[in-house]
Prior knowledge:
Elements: E1 2-6, H1 13-22, E2 26-31, H2 34-42, H3 53-64, E3 68-72, H4 78-88, E4 92-95, H5 102-105, H6 109-133, E5 138-144, E6 159-164, E7 167-172, H7 180-199, E8 202-208, E9 210-212, H8 238-248, E10 252-255, E11 261-266, H9 267-279, E12 287-292, E13 295-298, H10 299-309, E14 316-319, H11 337-341, H12 350-363, H13 389-392
Parallel strand pairs: 1-2, 1-4, 2-3, 4-5, 5-8, 8-12, 9-11, 10-14
Antiparallel strand pairs: 6-7, 11-13
Helix pairs in contact: 1-9, 4-6, 6-7, 8-10, 8-12
The structure holds nicotinamide-adenine-dinucleotide and sulfoquinovose-uridine-C1,5'-diphosphate.
Amino acid sequence: MRILVLGGDGYLGWPTALHLSAVGHEVAVADNLARRGYDEEMGVESLVPISSLEQRIAAWQECSGETIESYVGDLCEATFVHQMVREFQPQTIVHYAEQRAAPYSMISQAHALYTQTNNIVSTLNVMYAIADFDRDIHLIKLGTMGEYGQPNIDIEEGWIEIEHKGRRDRLIYPKSPGSFYHCSKVHDSHNIEFGCRVWQLRATDLNQGVVYGADTPQTKLDERLATRFDYDGVFGTVLNRMVIQAVLGHPLTVYGRGTQTRGLINIVDTVECIRLAAEAPAGRGEFRVFNQLTETMSINDIAATIADAYPGACKIEHVENPRVEAYDHYYNVVHTALEDLGLKPSLLSATLIDHLFDVVERYRERVDQAAILPTVRWSDTESSLPRTDSALAPT
Ligand code: NAD
Ligand code: USQ
C-alpha cells in the first residue's frame, strides 16, 4: 500500500514511517520541520540526539534497503498539499502534522492562534486534496483522548447513543477539551466528520492517550534512526518526563493533587495501531473513531510506579498545577476497536521502565535542568495587543 505520513519527522511520525516501510508498504513522509523550530524558540533539545531528515532517510536505506520519499513543505500551503498528493498518489494518508503541545498553545494569544490555524488549516487542506484528487484515499488522523475531557459517564469510541425526551439518536460524543491545542483537535474532528458526510471521505480519527517510550525495533537499528525524546515543561509528556527526573535525582513533578487520570500508550503500540488502521480502512463516507490507549492511570500512580521501579532514591513532589484540570473524576474509557483489529498491548512494566532508565542514563549530560519545571500557566493571558492603561481606563 502507498502511505503518506504527514509529520514524518516528528516523535511518532518518523517511527511510524519506519514501521510501515519495514512491513513492506511504500512510504513517503512530509514535514515542514516546524518541530525543530520550536526547539530553537524554547531553547531546548531532544534528550536523544536526532539526525536531519535526509540523514535519517539515507540511514534507513542503508539498514533496510528500503526507500522513503520525502516532501519538505507546509501543509498550510494548499498548493504544496495538492501537488504532493497528485505526485505520490497515496492510498492512505496518516496525518500527525500538527502543533501538539498543550502548554505551547497556552503560552500567549499568538501561540494559541498559531496552534489553531496550523492544525485546522493543515487538516482542511489535506481533506480538500483528497476530495479533489481521489476520495478513496483513507485519511488516518491523529486526534487525542483530551478531546473528551473527563465526563462523569463512560467515554465511548467517538459516537454515543442518546435518548432525549423520548427520542433516540447516534451523535458525535460530546467534547470538553482542556487547552487551545486540545480544542484544535475537536475542531478537526468536526471538520473531518462533515467531510465524510458531504464528500463521502473515508476517515479514521485516532483519539490517542499520552504516549511514552523512546524507541521502536526500527529506531534502535542505528543511532541515526533515533526518534526525538522530550523532557521539558512544554513538550515533554508526563511519563517520559518522570523517567528523566528519576535518573537526574530531580523530584517527580506531580501537578496539583495528582488524582487526574489519563490514558497511556507505548510508542511501539502507537506505530502498530497505525498499521492496523491502514490495513483495515474505513468505508466510504465512514467517520470511524478509535480510542488509542492501552491503560489508564492517575498521575499519582504513574509517579509511584516510576519511583518504585527506580533502583536509587526517588522523591515525588506535588507542585502547583499550572493547568486548570479536574481531580478525583470518573474515567472509564472504551478502547476495544484496535484490540479487535489485532493490537496486542505492551502494558507499562518494570522491563519497559528499566529500558527507559538506560536510555536516559546514556544521554543524561544533555539535560538542561532549567527546562524541567513548568512555566506556562493556563490562567495567564498574554495578549498579542499592547496593553495600555488608557485602553483599559474608564472614560
Ligand atoms: P511532533 O511535534 O513530534 O510531530 C509533529 C510533526 O508535524 C513535526 O515534525 C512538525 O514539524 C510537523 N508539522 C507541524 N505542523 C506542520 C505543518 N503545518 N506542515 C508540515 N509539517 C508540520 O508530535 P508527535 O508527538 O509526534 O505527535 C504527532 C501527532 O500525534 C500530533 O497530531 C499529536 O497531536 C498526536 N498525539 C501525540 C501524543 C503524544 O503523546 N506525543 C498523544 C496523542 C496524540
Ligand atoms: N503532568 C504532571 N506532571 C508533569 C507533566 C504533566 O502531573 O510533569 C500531568 C498534567 O497536569 C496532565 C497529565 O500529566 O494532567 C498529562 O500531561 P502531558 O503533558 O503528559 O500530556 P498532555 O498535555 O495532555 O498532552 C500530551 C501530548 C498531546 C496529546 C495528549 C494526549 O503532548 O499531543 O494529545 O498527551 S491526552 O492527554 O490523552 O489528551
